[in-house]
Structure formats: C-alpha cells, structure tokens
Amino acid sequence: MDVKIEESWKNILRHEFEKEYFQNLIQFVRSEYQTAQCFPKGSNIFAAFDYCSFDDLKVVIIGQDPYHGPNQANGLCFSVHDGIPHPPSLINIFKELETDIGKTYPTSGDLSAWANQGVLLLNATLTVRAHQAGSHQRKGWEEFTDAVIQQISEQKENVIFLLWGGFAKKKGAKIDKNKHHILTSGHPSPLSANRGYWFGNKHFSKANELLEKSGRPFIEW
C-alpha cells in the first residue's frame, strides 16, 4: 500500500506501513471516511509530516486527538484553519506566547508556520469522526505514532520534545533522555491552565535557548 506522505518520512516509516496493524488501520479509516463525516480531510491526515520533514525536524509537540468540529482540524495538533475561532487550548498557548516572548496574540490559529520551521505538530490519533471525540482511538494510530516517536528518538539527536499534560508525558516515555531535550508542563486546556499547571512554563523561549546553544536557528513562534 502506498501511503501519501513526505518522502523522508516514507523512508523512515516504510516498514511500519507494511505491518498488519497499519493495513487494518488504513482499511478502517477508509471505511470511516466513506460512511461518516471525519476530520481532518483526507489530504491533511499526514499534514504534520508533510510540513516538517524528518531531516528538518527540531521540535516535537504531541497532541491527542484532532478537533472534531466542522472546519477546525488541519492535520497539525492544536492548529486550526485560518479564520476559524481559536479553541480554548490554542487560546492559552497564544497567551503563554504573549507573556513568554512578547509575541502579539495572533489573529490566525493556523500553526503551519511553526511546522515549516521544523516543529512536528503530532497528534497521537490522526483522524476522528465529526462531533465524536476519541472515536478513532485504539484502532492503530497510537501504535503508529509511538513508532514515529521511537524513530525520532533513535535516529536523531538534540530534538526538543514539548510534552504538555499527562497524556503527552506517557506518550514520550520511550524518548532517550540522554540524546534529546524534554520539557514538560501541564496541558494548555482551561482545566489544567486555570489551576496553575500551564501558564509560566516558558517552553517557547526555553526551546529557542536550547536551539541556539546547539547552533541551530531558533523558531519564529
């Protein structure tokens, strides 16, 4: 089966695509997209990889599920299409950007500019049924994205992982801490952020400091 994904990732993940669980997953996803409304649109399922090649990868942010409302999900975790109202977690991400690095609150919630600079915006599950959060969990996506994280950990060095909330921390459990940088905090959702676990983490400035120390260009957040 030929998966339409950016070439450097195709080379890294080729063996994953051949595994039985992935074949079953793709059959499930195809059936879901044919019989129900699902997000993101099919051409954006692997957008996180298409925007950020394996070679250019510098930072990884791990989300959980795509947004399940109309016109929101664009294949990048926490990101929404231009012109779409910002969901609560994204609002808190932008508020932290304001206080951390003094960035003016953005009008667009599209984070593809981050991805183009080497930020992998990876959801653990890459598809979802409309209005049914978590509906495509435990179908194989988690195994696939675990394999992605493992390949990054094994084959690259000095990648900065931003793990927000308990789910992302569990997802990043197999990252080699001797080769990579791991920054953790609470999740930017209001439930966590309003209890003091998100604001003030300064992950954006800290990530840029780590990049500059290793002689790499910082991210224009």
Describe this structure in words.
The protein is an alpha/beta fold and 221 residues long. The strands form two sheets. It has a four-stranded parallel sheet. A two-stranded antiparallel sheet has the order 1-4. Strand 5, helix 7 and strand 6 form a beta-alpha-beta unit. The protein is globular and about 45 Å long. The termini are far apart.
Share of helix, binned: 25-40%
Average pLDDT, rounded to a whole number, is: 95
Largest sheet: 4 strands, parallel
- Count of DSSP-assigned helices: 9
Estimate the global geometry from the Cα principal axes. Answer: globular
User: SSE string, helix = H, strand = E?
Assistant: HHEHEHHEEHEHEHH
Strand segment tally? 6
Main sheet: which strands, in order across?
3-2-5-6
Task: Please outline the helices and strands.
Layout: H1 7-17, H2 20-35, E1 38-39, H3 47-51, E2 59-63, H4 88-101, H5 112-115, E3 119-123, E4 128-129, H6 141-155, E5 160-164, H7 166-171, E6 181-185, H8 190-193, H9 203-213
Parallel strand pairs: 2-3, 2-5, 5-6
Antiparallel strand pairs: 1-4
